[in-house]
Request: fold
Amino acid sequence: EVQLVESGGGLVQPGGSLRLSCAASGFTFSNSWMTWVRQLPGKGLEWVANIKQDGTEKNYVDSVKGRFTISRDNAKNSLYLQMNSLRVEDTAVYYCARGSGWIYPWGQGTLVTVSS
Amino acid sequence: EIVLTQSPGTLSLSPGERATLSCRASQSVTSNYLAWYQQKPGQPPRLLIYGASSRATGIPDRFSGSGSGTDFTLTISRLEPEDFAVYYCQQYGSSPRTFGQGTKVEI
Reply:
């Protein structure tokens, strides 16, 4: 069974940092593009970033460029999102998902709250 | 970036009725690279349709997708109680990938 489990969310002050992790199982992680998507509280979905199988290509939405870094460790079947200079408007549930185009499946998400 | 506009915002229907959801893109979606997702409260989105009209694995055939260019439609032929949810379209023909704002299908 394909499974994605996010961790690392929590409460952080504006300007702070947080690192999200996503543990993957049930598929060949090293063969898959991976994506982070976020959902603001009670709102819609926003694509955040994706990363190629070997980590050589990364793409970001403009609102996080220069602040967030997506990375992966294929030996550990893990995906990461390093989030720096966090803003109140980054408060959201962050989902890890498999794929670059259509994305499937999705993890259950981890909540990031940016507040003073 | 491609902006996707979904309509209506809310669709009020009864079980057994037909639901027609629209997704309009601000510019043509490359190769009709458009997907549809269903999301229920407290759950992550679930992929329904990709490539505008291909059903994902395990999706019932009452769900169908159509359209091309800038206009796409998700149709649920006969609503089942478990179909009441929020539906999102997403384009993946260009970067950044973008989502529509969602259509809520309610009883």
Q: What stands out?
A: Residues 72 and 79 of chain A are 4 Å apart (CA to CA). The longest strand of chain A covers residues 18-25. The mean pLDDT of chain A is 96.
